[in-house]
Design goal:
Elements (H helix, E strand, L loop, with lengths): L2 H20 L9 H9 L4 H6 L9 H14 L3 H27 L1 H13 L1 H4 L8 H21 L2 H17 L5 H16 L4 H24 L3 H6 L17 H8 L7 H6 L1 H13 L1 H11 L1 H5 L1 H4 L14 H18 L1 H22 L5 H11 L5 E5 L6 H8 L13 H6 L3 E7 L5 H9 L2 E7 L3 H4 L3 E6 L1
Parallel strand pairs: 1-2
Antiparallel strand pairs: 2-4, 3-4
């Protein structure tokens, strides 16, 4: 079998593995952001997805594709997550292309295997948000840029423009990728002597400009709405995530392919091997710089611009991390096949174990179902949560009349004063500790607790019953 066919077969196996690893998560309860995005945008059709923006919940491309999927297959957990699943699976061969352009076929295969199993790659592709698309287009953009700089392939130039425009449409923070590429290309242009390399860098800068223009066209219908909400992007409330805190820790752990500390540490030998390989290979160093450097631009948001940053916003670094770890696996293999197999196996097993132990993001469906099953005739229920009454999604499916209590439970006193209200579903109990205290002071007690790992455990849902 030729080397090309061997790589194709290996990447195909990695892609199948990616699908198998992701599939068990698709049927989990939808969580807050997924429901808020679908109800607020996708449910109103294609123009609702791409022509409205009243909150950061709208990842325009993801909202549009979720509408298309729901129209084709009906509305349920799997259908609204299907676009993200497909993007996450497609990211595996895209990372293989990135690895091949960086350091050859072996690194491409190993990088694809990492992208198939890393929790930071798996989890974005199992929720109806734009992060899996960010991973896919980041891999394509960096690979296309490398192909252009190496060979001057015209198709790669256009592929780069499309990938950056669509990636930015999937999530605004993706703009850090072409912004970093522009800075890197400008630096390289100034350091290069006149010749083909310098000419390609200048044309690559033109590709970045074209991508910016294309992204501007895609965002044109909602650009004014985004600007009107510009203060929402600033850290004004004091409860936004900071770099010195859980989100900052998750950003560091992302270098090991997982937000679970022990699974990330298990990949440390691969990361060390990747760094050693990059120290000797200029092509690999260039690829890592292009695929990871956008994180430096993203850091400007909290450090300089007074904004905030979640670890999942750095989804565009996932291809670069997969490249680093895949190159590390090859580095160990070249020194000792036993060491290479052991390092890869330890990381892969740890990643799969972390995914198996993770549990659901937010068990809203289960909490509402518990109320529906246990409330007797005459007992009503209400919910306390954030501004969007996302509980209504599952309440409607279960036939339960469950009104909300205003943003952040501001009207909870009125709900508690109604003697027919015997049940309460409380979302984000840690963030809404004051509301929980009010409920318990009025005689409500926790009947059932449902854990949720999203936002560092803030995805928990409590079911309280009046005693």
């Amino acid at each position: 079998m030729s080397a090309r066919r061997t790589q194709a077969a290996a990447v195909a196996l990695a892609t199948i593995a990616a699908l198998l690893v992701r599939a068990p998560f698709l049927g989990d309860s939808l969580w807050y952001d997924e429901i808020a995005a679908f109800v607020g945008y996708s449910m109103d059709g294609p123009w609702g997805a791409v022509g409205r923006y009243f909150s950061q919940a709208n990842h325009a491309l993801a909202s549009l594709l979720a509408w298309m999927s729901a129209e084709a297959f009906g509305v349920d957990e799997v259908s609204v997550r299907l676009p993200s699943l497909l993007a996450g699976v497609a990211a595996v061969p895209a990372v293989a292309w990135l690895g091949r352009e960086a350091a050859g076929r072996s690194v491409g295969i190993a990088s694809a295997a990492c992208a198939a199993l890393m929790p930071t790659a798996v989890l974005p592709s199992t929720e109806a948000r734009g992060y899996a698309m960010v991973v896919l287009f980041a891999a394509l953009a960096s690979a296309a840029m490398l192909a252009w700089l190496r060979r001057g392939a015209r198709a790669a130039w256009w592929a780069y423009v499309a990938a950056c425009a669509l990636g930015t449409w999937a999530h605004l923070v993706f703009a850090c990728v072409p912004a970093w590429h522009a800075a890197w290309l400008a630096w390289r242009t100034m350091r290069s002597a006149p010749g083909e390399d310098r000419a390609r860098c200048i044309r690559a800068l033109a590709a970045v400009a074209a991508a910016a223009g294309a992204a501007g066209v895609l965002y044109a219908p909602i650009l004014g709405q985004i600007l009107a909400l510009r203060n929402e992007f600033r850290a004004l409330d004091g409860n936004e995530p900071t770099l010195v805190g859980p989100e900052g820790l998750w950003m560091l752990l992302s270098a090991g392919g997982s937000w679970t500390w022990w699974a990330s540490l298990a990949a440390l030998p691969l990361a060390a091997g990747g760094a050693a390989a990059a120290a000797r290979d200029p092509g690999l160093r260039r690829a890592l710089a292009l695929s990871l450097g956008g994180a430096l631009v993203a850091m400007l948001f909290p450090l300089v611009l007074g904004s905030w940053l979640y670890a999942r916003f750095l989804a565009f670094t996932v291809p670069g991390v997969a490249l680093l770890l895949g190159a590390g696996a090859c580095w160990w293999w070249q020194r000792s096949r036993t060491a290479g197999i052991a390092a890869a196996a330890v990381a892969g097993i740890a990643w799969c174990a972390a995914l198996a132990a993770l549990g659901p993001r937010q068990q809203l469906r289960e909490a509402v179902a518990f109320v529906a099953e246990h409330a007797v005739a005459g007992e009503r229920a209400f919910a306390v949560g954030l501004p969007d009454d996302v509980h209504r999604w599952y309440a409607a499916l279960k036939g339960v009349d469950m009104p909300g209590s205003g943003p952040y439970g501001r009207d909870v006193a009125a709900a508690m004063s109604d003697p027919s209200m015997h049940w309460c579903v409380l979302l984000y109990p840690r963030a809404l500790a004051e509301r929980r205290a009010q409920l318990e002071g009025a005689g409500f007690a926790v009947e059932r607790s449902y854990g949720g790992w999203i936002d560092h455990g803030d995805g928990a849902v409590l079911v309280l019953r009046r005693r």
